[in-house]
Amino acid sequence: MKNIVRSIALIICCMIVMTSCTPAKQGGQTQEKNEDKIRIGMSFDSFIIERWQRDRDVFVSTAKEYGAEVNVQNASGDVEEQKKQIEYLIAKEMDVIVIICADSEKLKDSVEKAKDAGIRVIAYDRLLMDTDAILYYATFDNKMVGTIIANEIIDQADLNEVRKAGDYRTIEFFMGSPDDNNAYMFYTGLMEVLRPYMDDGTLVCKSGKFTFNETAIIRWSEEMAAEKCPRLLETHYKDEDLDICASVFDGFAYGCKTALEDAGYTERNWPIITGQDADLKACKNILEGVQTSSVYKDTRVLAEKCVTMVNAVCNGSTPEINDIEQYNNRVITVPSYLCTPVIINADNIQEIIIDSGYYTEEELMGE
């Protein structure tokens, strides 16, 4: 009798174990979703800009190291498409949605839907405006970007010596897209440093266009910069060289380079051209001497900070924050982590770009 009881008990135990180990099924399909994994939706503006491709790759690989899975969506610069993709990520029940917005002012309804669904939203690199549905913001110090570009212009043009000599240098401005809050920050940092040189005549903008609205280039369009620069040269610089192209984006720098070559500028009168993002092409141009500098923003650092931010949010802790003042989106001041940008030029590109492994020497020297 005892043996029979033991046998029955053993059979029952086996049935319990088998039941607990059998995957749950939905609609006849095995449910493979790991509820312990953090599920991150990542909504990109586009991958036209080289830098965003690096951000995607680094973010995804970093997230995997933390045991998270990432669903990447690419809106190809289309705001309406990005709205649809955010709603798709909401329907997929992401734990967090990280957004690199195509238009900082037109995603309010989408991110508020995410908030209503209990999904946390983090802005990445570009601030989302007019909503309280953002928990945090991970970016670089955008005002500092403008400041270090301006200081690079002062150093490369030797403006303090030019001022002492009572001379001047000509300058034109190629500023960022008005639908990106970062562009205002870049401009503010740049003009706070350069405006005194403009006020005393050390810098002369012959077009007379130097306000943000007059110099902003919509959607960060390289093509528009390539059209703008020839117009400026033709209209204002027939009898005098343009000395400085104050550009806040590598794409604008490429457009300026093409226009200057077409206008007959050579090594003898080649102007200072600044940029931002340290694209591979920009770094090659710096080594060739046709672009003066770029702002290096190490995507590895930003991705790491954003992933740890996501991890903290999902585990109920407070992420590392180093700014609670600068980034007001007209509804709330968004707690932010600001990474430090660095200027690169011919003097430090080896140390900062190659030695750090951001690009290899073979990549920089290749075609």
Write out key terms for the chains shown.
single chain, 367 residues, alpha/beta, six-stranded parallel β-sheet, four-stranded parallel β-sheet, 14 helices, 14 strands, 46% helix, elongated, disordered N terminus
Q: What would you say this structure looks like, in words?
A:
The protein has 367 residues and is an alpha/beta fold. Helix content is 46%, strand content 15%. The protein has 14 helices and 14 strands. It has helices spanning 2-21, 50-65, 79-91, 108-116, 142-157, 159-164, 181-199, 212-215, 222-236, 250-262, 280-288, 299-314, 349-354, 361-365; strands at residues 25-26, 29-30, 39-44, 69-74, 96-99, 120-124, 136-140, 169-174, 203-204, 244-247, 272-273, 293-296, 336-339, 342-345. The strands form four sheets. A six-stranded parallel β-sheet has the order 4-3-5-6-7-13, with helices on both faces. Strands 9-8-10-11 form a four-stranded parallel β-sheet, with helices on both faces. The longest helix is centred in the first third of the chain and has 20 residues, at 2-21. Residues 1-34 have low confidence and may be disordered.
